[in-house]
Design goal:
347 residues; mainly beta; 13-stranded antiparallel beta sheet; three-stranded antiparallel beta sheet; 4 helices; disordered N terminus; signal; Secreted protein
Amino acid sequence: MPAIGRKTRGVALGAALFLLAGAAPAWADIVPGGGNGSGSEGEVGGGSGDDGTINASAGAVVYDRSKNGSGQSAGPVTSASDWTPPACYYAPAFTPDQLKAELEPIWEAGSTGPEWDAEQRDRYVNGKPYKDFNKEKEGEGYWWDGFVADGRIGDPGALDCQGPNFWVDTGDAPPADVPEAITPEMLAQLAYAELRVPSTEVKLAPEVETKVNLPTWAWLDGATFKPVSVTASVPLLGMTATTTAEPVSLRIEPGTADARLHPASGECALVDGSIGERYAKGKADRTPPCGVTYLRSSGDGTFPLQATLTWKISWTGTGVNDEQPLPDGSFGAEQPVTVREIQAVNR
């Protein structure tokens, strides 16, 4: 029988409310499971409004998304490698009374079998190794439990946090044999999954339709593409990490092999806060620093131009002042481009 609490749990609503009020929380006053410590609560949620920029929907972790990308077209970045953020983690979940309130009804129901119930009573009540849910240490620490990260239920990695609850004294490190125990770096990785960046639909000139063999200019305004960040915290531990994504380059794929890219690599670098160069009158004879020249017509249809922005991602957090790298992320969008033949008039 797996450890209790295998659902995604929200236990930091009190912390979220402190954040919403604009005040720094007093960590010792925040207890798992609710404001008065009367029992563990599952699926507790909090928020700063309809946009949900700050909430406690991911168990012991509170996210501040107020500096995240916004808008209907914003979306999550995709890691440039096979790396993915952790699917689960261990973090503070219960006071002694809360663990008792969680476990005893399960034992009394008898649905888990007498052998398992007896093993659990030995572990948490009979001193093998804990006695009476560790009530003698009330206020000196918390029972830790496993949490599944938002959206990761069903992932194979979510099963890595199925172990039994364990006690950690306040100020002590969790057991060394629990690699999934929450750390600032793990918080940063969880925040990575919460990043949202704006759409990469580029400005084009000509705008409505372009012509065969006529350079099409492409650019992104710097005012639109600024760094975004998400901060993840575990209030019960006074632990925090901020993950920041900064745009660095744009890759263009014209949607057909019959095209010539500018530059030839298709990678347009960020220069002075902008990518590419806005087209203006008098530039028709120049080669755009970012763009594409189509070599044939799109006929009755369009070419699906794909624009993908690469974001450099890093983090800082508790005990870590210098920026630490995380895998680059990318986010792209597709837009239709109509290409027509240049019509010649014979007289």
